[in-house]
Amino acid sequence: xxAEECSHNGLGCNLFCxxxxxxxxxxxxxxxxxxxxxxxxxxxLRTPHETDAEIRRQLSxxxxxxxxSKVDSARQxxxxxxxxxxxxxxxxxxxxxQLRKARPDNSQASxxxxxxxxxxxxxxxxxxxx
Length: 130
Description:
Distance between the termini: 28 Å
Structural class: mainly alpha
Order of helices and strands: HHHHHH
Helix content: 40-55%
Number of strands: 0
Shape: elongated
Radius of gyration: 18 Å
């Protein structure tokens, strides 16, 4: 629960600590030397500003082509994941997939038009509801 409140992805990501940036890739973490160093080493502390910037970066990635893999890679690499915005990111990714599909008449919208539509939807989704 605390990891979720801190916008952290949990123990499965590269930087697995919710308070600092200790960790490494899946190739490095299983090594005994690396494991022992985690118990003796505290990484640089995470800051609210960095977490906010990463969340915003993931939101902006959600309108790009190949957004799913880009967002997943960012989440895995940084350990930052805001579960509150998950539904917005998921909605934008799925909408982008549908907009980028070829239409029955073999036409396709331009990438600029698709991105503009997705950015408009992102702005709409981030507006407070009254």
